[in-house]
Design a protein that fits this description.
By secondary structure, the chain is an alpha+beta fold. The protein is 37% helix and 29% strand. The protein contains 3 helices and 7 strands; from the N terminus they run αβββββββαα. It has a 7-stranded antiparallel β-sheet, covered by helices on one side. Strand 5 and strand 6 (115-125) form a beta hairpin. The N and C termini lie far apart (197 Å).
Length: 224
């Protein structure tokens, strides 16, 4: 009878774990050294007012349907110097811009009918490198986020309206400009009238001298 011990020993050799690689402690330097590069986002001079995760849609007029622009983070950014606020949204993975437009005082945001997590607004968007009139719809994960977005958006739009002080200053500047124009017209008119008046005075003087000369000639000579 053949012994099965060799098969058993061979099977144990197969099941034995492979020896781990020994750590030699050698360090391999990278072939190419990569330098750190500063990446500009274009948002360095702006302060974030709002930052919420959402999904954006735009209405396709030709197809008469909503099309998804992307899912990511929508931001309202206020410029540190001008005070202007713009809406910017980027896709979460590619960071591609989905929306990029100023928030103007004429804009209004409203709830989407039948969905209290979504809202709509019109804007002249520059996400594709040229201004386009777009109808946007944005959807949030919760009703609270949607309400927060609407409240902040509307508040920002109203804050972009000219203040009463600015209106008064503009009106005063227009009035001063109007007065300056009227004064200039008056000066030009006076300058045109003066030479004419001087000419009239000269003609009157000449006529008087001529009359005196004629009167002397008409007087009889005195007898001797």
């Amino acid at each position: 009878m053949a012994s099965k011990e060799p098969d058993h020993e061979h099977r144990e050799d197969e099941e034995a774990p492979a020896a781990e690689d020994e750590d030699t402690g050698a360090q391999v330097a990278p072939i190419v050294k990569l330098e750190e590069v500063a990446v500009s986002t274009g948002e360095e001079n702006e302060d974030p007012i709002l930052d919420l995760k959402s999904k954006l849609y735009r209405f396709d007029k030709e197809g008469n349907q909503w099309k998804e622009r992307g899912a990511g983070t929508v931001k309202l950014l206020k410029h540190k110097e001008t005070g202007k606020v713009r809406l910017v949204m980027r896709q979460s993975k590619t960071l591609k811009i989905c929306a990029n437009h100023l928030v103007l005082p004429t804009m209004a945001v409203q709830e989407h009918a039948g969905n209290d997590k979504s809202c709509l607004w019109h804007a002249s968007d520059f996400a594709d490198g040229e201004l386009k009139d777009e109808l946007f719809c944005i959807r949030f994960a919760s009703v609270e986020n949607c309400k927060t977005f609407m409240e902040v958006f509307q508040k920002v739009a109203e804050s972009q309206k000219p203040k009463e002080e600015d209106k008064d200053a503009s009106a005063a500047a227009e009035q001063l400009e109007k007065l300056s124009v009227e004064e200039k017209k008056s000066e030009d008119k006076s300058g045109e009238e003066k030479p004419f008046a001087a000419k009239e005075g000269k003609e009157t003087k000449d006529d008087t001298e001529k009359a005196d000369t004629e009167k002397k000639d008409e007087e009889p000579a005195s007898s001797t």
